[in-house]
Amino acid sequence: MLGLSIEVVWHDADPEDIDLMELRVSADGGPFRGSAKVYALPHEIDSLAGKFRGFPSSADDRFHMELGASKRSNRVLFAASCLNRVGDSVLTVHMEEGADDARFDGHPQIAEIVFRFEALAADEFAAALKRIASRKAGRAHLAGFR
After folding, report:
1. Which of 14, 28, 45, 146 is the S-S candidate for 33 at Cβ 3.0 to 4.6 Å?
2. Which of 129, 130, 116 is nearest to 56 (CA)?
3. Could you tell me which of 37, 32, 2 has the C-alpha nearest to residue 20?
4. Which tens digits make up the pLDDT trace of 86-110?
5. Which residues contact 144 (CB under 8 A, 6 or more apart)?
């Protein structure tokens, strides 16, 4: 399905731990798709929701955000910008997985997916991300279009 999906695969339920979540991030730009598993904390998901909520606020609006522990582990980078005064926007999702995997000898598998989305879809996605952050479960989808 065209767009971006973020789903909680696992979370640490130990009340004395830090509530780490493993997420499956999948992006579909039409002819190409990709996915990666990353680790994130609830406040990082809240921050991502905050970036999407109300986006775009102007024709010049843009943001960048990264999920994942470091450059040596799986990570996903998000870059969004507004395309026009109507509020149509574009999201680039850059995913890296497997840098620590001996099979890839330190070279991660990389995918970069680009698709367009509307402001209403961004707000719906932000609300779903907020639910993920609070429940530490679920799935959020940002609908894309060509």
Report:
1. 28
2. 116
3. 37
4. 888 999 999 998 766 656 666 778 9
5. 2, 3, 4, 28, 29, 91, 115, 116, 117, 121
**Cβ atoms of 118 and 101 closer than 8 Å:** no
Residue 22 or residue 108, greater confidence: 22
DSSP letters for the chain: --EEEEEEEEE---TTS---EEEEEEEE-SS-EEEEEEEE-HHHHHHHHHHHTT--SSTT-EEEEEESS-TTS-EEEEEEEE-STT--EEEEEEEEE-TT-GGGTT--EEEEEEEEE-HHHHHHHHHHHHHHHHHS--EEEEE-B-
- The C-alpha atoms of residue 26 and residue 97 are separated, in whole angstroms, by 12
Strands 33-40 and 21-28: antiparallel
CA distance 92 to 78: 6
The predicted model scores a pTM of 0.90
The one-letter amino acid at 94: H
